[in-house]
Write a structure and sequence with these properties.
This protein is mainly α and about 150 residues long. It has six helices and two strands.
Length: about 150
């Protein structure tokens, strides 16, 4: 499974919003600057996330975007599927695929591809944005500590 720029930027934007959950809306420019995402691209992604019910927005001077639900209720898997589609490594084990495998009866790989798909899905579906925010805070804290010898 490979994450595109679209999936990368969407998950990073949600990480930022998760880290500031219940602090009020964040302006697009703030999210873009903190996560190094182009503003125009971020605008498009935030609209997709809003239409899918993950975000709310507020207009005005103190406006911006905020999570529509708690970060502990949003999994990485939900967002990856929204932005990228199925995490299946190949079409023959993708439940949404319309393609039919011509060598399915003799294929020695299908079980492996299923195992890979299911392992990836398990990880994605068991990591919430609350956890991602916690991990980000720990990294930020560890980077701000300076060691003097």
């Amino acid at each position: 499974m490979k994450i595109s720029t679209k999936g990368d930027y969407a998950t990073r934007a949600l990480q930022e919003l998760s880290m500031h959950y219940n602090e009020g809306p964040l302006r697009i420019q703030e999210i873009a600057q903190r996560q190094d995402i182009p503003v125009r691209y971020l605008e498009q992604l935030l609209l997709i996330l809003k239409r899918a019910g993950y975000l709310e927005s507020k207009r005005g001077v103190r406006g911006g975007y905020y999570l529509a639900k708690s970060p502990h209720l949003i999994t990485l898997g939900e967002i990856i599927r929204l932005m990228e589609g199925s995490p299946a490594p190949i079409f023959c084990v993708d439940p949404s695929s319309q393609e039919k495998c011509t060598v399915e009866k003799i294929c020695g790989f299908q079980g492996i591809w299923v195992e890979i798909r299911d392992t990836i899905a398990h990880i994605l579906d068991n990591v919430t944005f609350e956890e991602i925010g916690r991990r980000a805070r720990l990294r930020i804290a560890s980077k701000s500590v300076s060691y003097h010898i």
